[in-house]
Design the sequence.
């Protein structure tokens, strides 16, 4: 018998821990996105940890900027960035206030609101692809920079909340190099900080960093 997922909101203390503890512990949790068009609930299946000034792959490695300001805390807030001039990606800030740690939400299973997600992800061949990758996840959930800085632990009405869900047993968690990260930040021997649920069909494929060529 499959246990019913716990729909209790995760407290701020959950996020106020080292990023390498929070990241794998987010697997199996439920992300609820509330929009004027209706709610969507996603079960997290893949994430990546980014450890601020200790991590050359992090947006905060070289210090604080207007773009990464939310990463510096407090924990439990949403950090959204725009990349390649096309896509948004969503992170959850964690660790002590001021340390600039965050977890990138890479993939998940839409468990409620798939009809709405399909209208945003018309190119998805099936529901397993609706949120298979960080940009697809953000698109399916209707996430953009307007959500940057949202408090996911706030009481009352909030556009995004993380629920307890069902934690994934450690023997079902896998880890390895982060996807598309260059240099030492993408070295799986140094930073094996991508975490995913073993054999889950919604997990995105690993791709090493490929330098982008400038158009002539």
Sequence:
């Amino acid at each position: 018998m499959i246990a019913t997922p716990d729909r209790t909101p995760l407290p701020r203390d959950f996020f106020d821990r080292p990023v390498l503890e929070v990241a794998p512990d987010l697997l199996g949790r439920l992300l609820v996105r509330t929009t004027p068009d209706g709610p969507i609930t996603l079960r997290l299946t893949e994430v990546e940890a980014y450890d601020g000034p200790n991590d050359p792959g992090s947006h905060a490695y070289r210090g604080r900027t207007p773009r990464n300001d939310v990463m510096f805390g407090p924990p439990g807030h949403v950090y959204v960035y725009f990349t390649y001039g096309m896509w948004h990606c969503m992170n959850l800030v964690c660790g002590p206030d001021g340390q600039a740690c965050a977890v990138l939400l890479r993939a998940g299973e839409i468990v409620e609101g798939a009809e709405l997600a399909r209208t945003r992800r018309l190119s998805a061949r099936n529901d397993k692809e609706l949120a298979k990758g960080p940009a697809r996840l953000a698109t399916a959930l209707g996430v953009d920079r307007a959500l940057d800085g949202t408090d996911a632990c706030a009481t009352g009405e909030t556009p995004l909340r993380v629920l307890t869900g069902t934690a994934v047993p450690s023997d079902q968690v896998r880890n390895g190099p982060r996807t598309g990260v260059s240099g030492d930040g993408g070295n799986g021997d140094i930073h094996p900080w991508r975490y995913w649920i073993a054999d889950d069909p919604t997990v995105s494929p690993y791709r090493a960093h490929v330098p982008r060529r400038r158009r002539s």
